[in-house]
TrEMBL record:
Keywords of this entry: Cell membrane, Membrane, Transmembrane, Transmembrane helix
Transmembrane segments: 6-27, 50-71, 292-312
SMART domains according to UniProt: VWA
Any matching Pfam family: VWA_2
VWFA domain sequence ranges: 85-275
Domain of life: Bacteria
Species assigned in the record: Auraticoccus monumenti
Protein name: Ca-activated chloride channel family protein
Amino acid sequence: MIDFAFPLRLWALAAIPVLVLLYLLLARRIARRRGSRNTLQMVVPRDRTWLRHVAVALALMSLVTLTLAWAKPTQDIEVPSERGTIVVTIDVSLSMEATDVEPNRLEAAKVAAIDFVQGIPPRYNVSVVTFAQTAAILVPPTTDHGAATAAIENLQLAPSTAIGEGIFTSLNALLQVPPDPENPDEPPPARIVLLSDGKTTYGRSAAVAAEQARVQEVPIYTIAYGTENGYVEIEGQREPVPVDRVELQNVADISGGEAYEAQSAEQLVQVYEDIQSSVGTERVPMEATSRYAGAGLFFAVLASLGLVSLAARWP
């Protein structure tokens, strides 16, 4: 998105269509003078008329970009962020024992999550939260990423799925973020990365929890993990455990995050890599005046070269 420090200056762009109209009127007027062999044809051969039009178009583009530069544009760009907090929230319900993802959903999730944590910038705080019927903070926000990976390695299964509780507990974990010595009064940006293979069967609504995350400006990146054919065996009976993508998509939409899907260990690794590239950056406003001024100068030079090649003035 582009903002302008002096937006009123953009009214100067209204002169562009006026100049275009004047150019067309003058060109038509000269073309009608002196019959079939008019002044314009003597100056500009018929087969080079296109070059004149191109030169005029380039000059107008130069005026447009220079006007934009005059209005002092600023544009948000992504730069590597030096600090932040990532809450890695993982579903450990019994459905994570399904083997549709080899060797099973939980073991593959552990490997991918550990790789994700190891790739997070060193100054970032990392927290680990798990949820099944209840949710728990295994590791409060810390820059000791080794503690986070150790907690992930030791995840254990439990019954039920409480996605909403997992989100609320993740938000509570953010209350434990240690203050930044350089910016003690400014909390670092935070995000929740939530992986689940099911839908809520217990606890508070995931949508309500996502709304609270939106209020606290904590986007949630959800990962719908597993396939439609997943199942677990309970007392010798196969129980289907398909992924509920709709609920996780809704959580991401409400909170302002993004929703991902992974149906294999390889896809899950790719998803974590994509999220890693997003959470490791932040958008900051930067003045873009020089960029637009440079473009205006470039178009002006091209237009001048066109005039020189025509060896004639414009109408």
